[in-house]
Structure formats: C-alpha cells, structure tokens
C-alpha cells in the first residue's frame, strides 16, 4: 500500500501558497510608514507611534461576517464580504471615539480555492485602504472534515487608538439629547439567518429572483450590499466634540445596541420616520414578521446613531459630508427604549 500525503487528506499546501501570492499585491497597498514587517512573517510589526495623542489608548474588537457568507456562496461572489468585515469592525471601535490602526483576518474553509481566498482578501484590502488602516496579517486555514467543500468562514480583529480624554463611553449622555441617524445600505452583516429562512426557505426565492418591492435589484444583490463604514462622516464631529454617544446598529437592532451606550437613568424614545430599504419590507411581508421582531433583528435602515446636544450642527456636518441624516429620537429619563409608532 502506498503512503498518502497532505493533499490526499484534503489540505493542499501548494494552493495555500498560491493564495498568498495572489493576495500580496493588494495587501501591500494598505501598508503605511508604521508597518515594519512584510507579508508572510510569523507576526506583523506595527510601530506604536502616537504623536497626536497625549494618553494613547488601544481599542480592540473582533467580529465575523456570519451567514451572509452563504449568500456570497450562492452568488459565487466573495468580492464584498471582506469589505463587510473591515467596515463592521471599524464602526465597532469608532463608537468609542477610536480610529483604526491595523487589521488582522482569519479565513477558514473546507477546501481552499486560492482565487476565492484572494477575492476575499482583496475586499479586505480595499476597505482597509478606504479606512486608513493597514492589513497587517492574517491566517488562511484549510480544514477538511470540519467545513464542507465550498464553505468559507471569515473573521477579523481590528486595533485602533484614541486619546484617553476623548474616549466616548456614553457617560456624557443626558435626557434631552437628540438622536441623529445615518442610513444603512441594507442588512449590513446581521439578521441573515432570518432573512435566508424567509426569502429562500419559506418564499422559495433564489439569489437571482426579482421582486417588485426590490426594484431592479435581485434578491442576492439586495442582500450583498456592502456594510457601510461611518468613519469619514464621524471624524469632523469627533474633532469638534459634538458627540456624547454613538451606537453601531448590528444584531439586536436599534433597541439592543442603543441601550449599550446609555448611562443609568437614561432611556430613549425612537421616532422611526426614516426611509427603510426595500429588502426589509420584502422580508417582513413574505415572512409575516411582527414589527417588534423586525426592530429586534434588523437595523431597518438606521446603520449608525449619534447622540448629541447639538443636533443642528451634527446634521449640518453630516450633510456637508454627503450624508442624508435623519432625526431618530430623543434621550429620556428612565431605563427603557420605546418606539413612538410602527416603522416598517
């Protein structure tokens, strides 16, 4: 009996090397003067240089893309999931006033296709460049027997920095503050298990299906819209110290994320009069989903919330940045978040 090698067991080292080779060009585009290592080293080196910060504090976060990857697989289009991941992580540290420094990714699969891995990393690199963040390194793991062939999982860690005196933790939020919303592009990276159950399993649609509610977009195109980053819009607001709190609306919707930044004794009344992307109306209609469940599961078009005592100035800055901000509610006394009326 002849022996077997690593490829026979399901792991192709040569394909892994080809993937790294395909990634290198795009990854190196994200490097800046603080990156001291090359791609392929055991660890990424980043110079801790904070000339503009008096008391620099590092802020770290990690997340994944979730089952949005199933939609990417059905569409055979992984070009945007890397952007989703980076932008999600950027927003998660932005709410504390931090700006990104570098990012690390992890890609796992059942059988590696170097072209797919490179497509994912190209998306990561694109978003890193747009957010002024170095893609410092990562790991690609081929795990046959754990993942099925064709399955990919993507996660990442972001490191950012903020001056200790400028950390935004919600402690400055007080009753009477206004809540200003910034639109989402759609589901972003949350609620996909429910969305897939409704659209694909219950309604029998496919990623190539059209529906009057969606207009020109197919179901797949509507679901794969890129998770937005709000970094560039928020920079001038933070520099002008116009913000007392920020919430990135992910899993749990507005109530589940806004409550995370409210100090004891503060609640909120949400007035959802903003435009709701059509994909949410489609999910609600085809799934027969109650309004309260829609509010808990999805962002419903409100991707990012800004709490401020100066709503006119915040709105003006956001409009100048090309945004379409909307009033989303008020901070109240108490400890609950309530909706003033149905939103979808």
Q: How are the secondary structure elements laid out?
A:
Elements: H1 13-28, E1 56-64, H2 68-75, H3 81-94, E2 99-109, H4 114-130, E3 134-142, E4 152-163, E5 178-183, H5 192-202, H6 219-223, H7 231-239, E6 245-248, H8 253-258, E7 266-270, H9 278-287, H10 291-297, E8 302-308, H11 311-320, E9 326-333, E10 337-339
Parallel strand pairs: 2-3, 7-10
Antiparallel strand pairs: 1-4, 2-4, 5-8, 5-9, 6-8, 7-9
Helix pairs in contact: 1-4, 3-4, 5-9
Description:
It contains eleven helices and ten strands. Helix 4 links the parallel strand 2 and strand 3. It has helices at 13-28, 68-75, 81-94, 114-130, 192-202, 219-223, 231-239, 253-258, 278-287, 291-297, 311-320; strands spanning 56-64, 99-109, 134-142, 152-163, 178-183, 245-248, 266-270, 302-308, 326-333, 337-339. The protein folds into two domains: 13-166, PurM-like, N-terminal domain (60s Ribosomal Protein L30, Chain: A, 2-Layer Sandwich); 178-339, Phosphoribosyl-aminoimidazole Synthetase, Chain A, domain 2, CATH 3.90.650. The mean pLDDT is 92. With 344 residues, the chain is of the alpha+beta class. 42% of the residues are buried.
């Amino acid at each position: 009996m002849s022996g077997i090698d690593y490829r026979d067991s399901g792991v192709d080292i040569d394909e892994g090397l080809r993937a790294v080779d395909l990634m290198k060009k795009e990854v190196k585009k994200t490097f800046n003067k603080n990156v001291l290592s090359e791609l392929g080293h055991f660890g990424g080196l980043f110079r801790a240089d904070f000339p503009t910060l008096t008391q620099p504090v590092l802020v770290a976060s990690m997340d994944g893309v979730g089952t949005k990857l199933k939609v990417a697989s059905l569409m055979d289009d992984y070009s945007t999931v890397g952007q989703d991941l980076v932008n999600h992580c950027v927003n998660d540290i932005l709410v504390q006033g931090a700006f990104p420094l570098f990012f690390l990714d992890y890609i796992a699969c059942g059988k590696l296709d170097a072209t797919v891995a490179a497509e994912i990393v190209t998306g990561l690199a694109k978003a890193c460049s747009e957010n002024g963040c170095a893609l410092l390194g990562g790991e690609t793991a081929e795990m046959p027997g754990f993942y099925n062939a064709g399955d990919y999982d993507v996660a990442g860690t972001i490191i950012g920095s903020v001056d200790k005196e400028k950390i935004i933790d919600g402690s400055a939020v007080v009753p009477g503050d206004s809540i200003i919303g910034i639109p989402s592009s759609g589901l972003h990276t949350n609620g996909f298990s429910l969305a897939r159950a409704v659209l694909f399993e219950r309604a029998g649609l496919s990623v190539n299906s059209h529906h009057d509610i969606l207009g020109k977009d197919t179901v797949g195109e509507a679901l794969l819209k890129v998770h937005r980053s709000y970094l560039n819009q928020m920079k001038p607001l933070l520099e002008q110290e116009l913000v007392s709190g920020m919430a990135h609306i992910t899993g749990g919707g507005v109530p589940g994320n806004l409550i995370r930044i409210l100090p004891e004794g503060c609640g909120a009344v949400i007035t959802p009069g903003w435009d709701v992307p059509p994909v949410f109306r489609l999910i609600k209609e085809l799934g027969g989903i109650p309004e309260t469940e829609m509010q808990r599961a999805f962002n419903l078009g409100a991707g990012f919330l800004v709490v401020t005592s100066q709503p006119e100035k915040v709105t003006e800055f956001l409009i100048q940045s090309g945004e379409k901000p909307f009033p989303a509610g008020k901070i109240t006394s108490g400890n609950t978040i309530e909706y003033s009326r149905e939103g979808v």
